């Protein structure tokens, strides 16, 4: 059986996710927003009671090493605001 996994936006939770995927020999594609990457981690938003942090551009290559990377727009615009 094959499962297709795609993950979005380059969030800090991806560090642990990538560790789990590697430990189980799983593959995945990560859809990143190049225009939102910064030199340092930053708080992007709050989802309920969870703070969502973005990975830094400098750590992304090591976090995603061995996985496929795809473009998920440069800045992740909201369709209703375009």
What features would you describe in this structure?
The protein is an alpha/beta fold and 82 residues long. It is built from two helices and five strands, in the order βαβββαβ. The strands form two sheets. A three-stranded parallel sheet has the order 1-2-5, with no helix packed on it. The chain has a two-stranded antiparallel sheet with strand order 3-4. The longest helix has 10 residues. The mean pLDDT is 91.
What is the element layout, followed by pairings?
Layout: E1 6-8, H1 14-23, E2 29-32, E3 42-47, E4 50-54, H2 60-63, E5 68-71
Parallel strand pairs: 1-2, 2-5
Antiparallel strand pairs: 3-4
Quick structural summary:
The chain has a three-stranded parallel sheet with strand order 1-2-5, with no helix packed on it. It has a two-stranded antiparallel ribbon with strand order 3-4.
Q: What would the keywords be for this entry?
A:
82 residues, 17% helix, two-stranded antiparallel sheet
Q: Which range does the strand content fall in? A: 25-35%
Physical arrangement of strands within the biggest beta sheet: 1-2-5
Q: CA-to-CA gap between the ends?
A: 39 Å
Total strand segments: 5
SSE order, one letter for each helix or strand? EHEEEHE
Radius of gyration from CA coordinates: 13 Å
Uncertain spans: none
Largest sheet: 3 strands, parallel
Number of helices: 2
Helix vs. strand class: alpha/beta
Helical residue percent? Answer: 10-25%
**What coarse outline follows from CA principal-axis ratios?**
globular
Q: Mean pLDDT, as a whole number?
A: 91
